[in-house]
Amino acid sequence: MFEVSKAFAEEQDQKDILAPFREQFYFPQRNGKNATYFCGNSLGLQPKNVKAAIDQELYDWQQCAVEGYWGAKNPWLYYQQYCSRPLTEIVGAGQDELSVMNTLTVNLHLMMISFYRPTKQRFKVLMEAGAFPSDQYAVETQVKLHGLDPAEAIIEVSPRQGEHLIREEDIFRIIEEESSSLALILLGGINYYTGQLFNMQSITDVAHKAGALVGFDLAHVVGNVPVKLHDWKVDFAVWCSYKYLNGGPGAVGGAFVHEKHARNRNQQRLGGWWGNEEATRFKMEKGFEPKGRAEGWQLSTAQVFNMVALKASLELFESAGMAALRDKSIKLTNYLEFLLKQIENINFEIITPKNCKERGAQLSLLFHDRGKDIQQKMTEAGLIVDWREPGVIRISPAPLYNSYGDVFHFYEIIANIDSNA
Ligand SMILES: *Cc1c(COP(=O)(O)O)cnc(C)c1O
């Protein structure tokens, strides 16, 4: 159904109902032209509506000062809710299950403080081997915080010898084998290196049957693949907002706490005044009374300037709709895969799952040699893609702003790379 031709790509762009969103973004410049950007999985592009949104907050700060908390056009007291509301559709959660705060690793620590409560019997954490380093460090230091030895308390599930992807049956097998000692399963919903998307629903089911809690790192999932955290009964999840969500460098992150835990005011946690009930927050009294919802994990006053770009970007997600974005994403990534299979002049292997239900927008190309060199050649030709040690070029067409034309342009360039030069 796909064709290797520019005319075909152009025709798909004409039919694409999401095509107009491309005009809502700034593309980085190379030699006076828009670069072809496939790094939305690392840092999303700047939506054009961000500047006006920032100017609005600067103006309200200027004109209202402290009264901006309630008197700004978007009263600052409730700023995080301007972001958590559109996130409900993106992650499949009630607004009471969402808290927009801090950054991913901070939120992972806060969630582990609450949901990794090791006992003598149950103290192990299952995670993927080669998880993103920040997640590894977080888990290692949490385990040590409880006086445990990471070598005993952390179980890693790896791909089998000679394979690149983790088999779900291996995850299930470990959960069963360790069912009396597992406290927590913590996986990246999509592995950042291979692009493998896990079946979060069945992992959660199996883990719960074994008596363990389940958390997911959705850094590469949020805004990429729609999920249903509430219905799947996931215990908690965390994410950052600067990848597919286009919230800008260092943007505020997010956390999901399932309502079964979020309503429990006795759930152990680290507290701060912004997580306290609003009715008593400003009484400045002793005794922390957490909100009976995910916002009960908030610590500090709303970081307005760290949320404003996310708020602006989420307006675009709301008008595009997550289902339409996923539809286009599947087609766009399948087209990229189809074109990559025509390439003969350079040697690589696509290690991302072939089944579109087991991946999002990213394809990972594994190079056994000269990968860094090829990435350099791509960069010189105006393609922005990223390199991850030890051997992968990640390519991620984001459906909100990438086109079939971008994908074809990418193909034309790499099909002409002289791999011997
Ligand atoms: C991007 C990413 C992070 C980044 O964490 P920050 O705290 O936002 O710096 C963490 N984990 C994974 C899996 C990621 O992909």
From TrEMBL:
EC number from the UniProt entry: 3.7.1.3
UniProt pathway annotation: Cofactor biosynthesis; NAD(+) biosynthesis; quinolinate from L-kynurenine: step 2/3; Amino-acid degradation; L-kynurenine degradation; L-alanine and anthranilate from L-kynurenine: step 1/1
Catalysed reactions, semicolon-separated: L-kynurenine + H2O = anthranilate + L-alanine + H(+); 3-hydroxy-L-kynurenine + H2O = 3-hydroxyanthranilate + L-alanine + H(+)
Cited Pfam families: KYNU_C
UniProt cofactor(s): pyridoxal 5'-phosphate
Cellular component aspect of the GO annotation: cytoplasm
Molecular-function annotations in GO: kynureninase activity; pyridoxal phosphate binding
Signal peptide segment: none
Biological process, per Gene Ontology: anthranilate metabolic process; L-kynurenine catabolic process; L-tryptophan catabolic process to kynurenine; NAD+ biosynthetic process; quinolinate biosynthetic process
Residues noted as binding pyridoxal 5'-phosphate in the record, renumbered to the chain: L104, T105, F132, P133, S134, D135, D217, H220, Y242, W273, T301
Domain of life: Bacteria
Modified residues (N6-(pyridoxal phosphate)lysine): K243
Keywords: Hydrolase, Pyridine nucleotide biosynthesis, Pyridoxal phosphate
Physiological role: Catalyzes the cleavage of L-kynurenine (L-Kyn) and L-3-hydroxykynurenine (L-3OHKyn) into anthranilic acid (AA) and 3-hydroxyanthranilic acid (3-OHAA), respectively.
Family label: Belongs to the kynureninase family.
Self-association and partners: Homodimer.
Protein name, per record: Kynureninase
